[in-house]
Amino acid sequence: MVTGFHNNAPQFRFVHRRNLILSIDTDKTNEEDLLKAVTKAKLLVEWLGFLLIEYTSYADTSSIPGHYVLFWELTNKGSNDLPVLDPKIMEECCSTVEESLDSVYRRCRRKENSIGPLEIRVVKHGTFHALMDFWLTKGSSVNQYKTPRCIKSEEAINIINSKVVGRFFSRNAPSWEPVMSGN
What we know:
By secondary structure, the chain is of the alpha+beta class. Helices cover 31% and strands 22% of the residues. The protein has five helices and six strands; from the N terminus they run E-E-H-E-E-H-H-E-H-H-E. It has helices at 31-46, 87-100, 103-110, 127-137, 154-161, and strands spanning 2-6, 9-12, 50-60, 67-76, 119-123, 164-169. The strands form two sheets. Strands 3-4-5-6 form a four-stranded mixed β-sheet, with helices on both faces. It is globular and about 55 Å long.
């Protein structure tokens, strides 16, 4: 966003995308933290020759406790074929994401049991094109479109859910230790 000018040069203020917080309880996961966690987890599938093409997420509160859901579109390097996924590797991806999230999330998940196991849903190739088409019909500009990292629209979630080909959950709660004060 242009906020003014200095000697004819525009001065910018960077604006983050809206609706970028995942939250079930007292946890608040922003886009940057989610990106860091996904970046660590995707390394587990990359060494198998898979690429994470795109991802998004939502906080599923349809059950108690609610849980984070990540939608991943994966492909084999060099082709558009859907990879054959090893459930143990995908469960490890879920655990890696959870271990990479902040201590509030990990406390809610491990100690308070107020957040359920993180879930990764793998979707068919082209799912995120379908999601883009949906947002374009809602008035988004094709030139400005970026895949939302957190979805709250029930319609959009239904579109992605209709293309899920695999569901994987974290088997173990992430580590968490209470912070002790130095007194």
